[in-house]
Amino acid sequence: MVDTPFRTTPSLGPELTQVLPAAQGSAWYDMPVDTYASTAPVIASPQEGDTCYGTDGRLYMWVRASGTIADAASPGTQIAITVTAYNNVTAATGAGGWYAPPTAIYGTDLLAGDHFWAAKGTAP
Question: What are 11-22's pLDDT values in tens digits?
C-alpha cells in the first residue's frame, strides 16, 4: 500500500505532496505561456485549476492560497475554492469539500500566494 499518493495523470508539475511557497516563486516544468517582454513567469506549471487523480483515488486541484490556511491533522483544513478567471483559482478556509495538505504532508500553515494540490473530499 502506498502511503504517499502520487499523480496517476501523465502530466508535468509538482508532486501531490509538494507545496510551492509564494516566496520561492514559480516552478516551471515546461515552457511558460504567459511571459511578457522578458519578464519572469507569474504563474506556476501546472496552471491553477488543473486537476488530476492520485493513487489514493482522490481528485486533486492545483490552487493558490488567497490567505493563511491553518495547518491541521488529516484530512487537512477544509477549504472553499474560488474561480474568478482562467488560471485564477484560489483557496481559503471554508466549507467547500476540498482539503489543504494535512500536517503529515506540509506541517505548517499555508500562506497567501502558496500553491498546492487541494484534495477533494476523503478517499473513496
Answer: 667 788 888 888
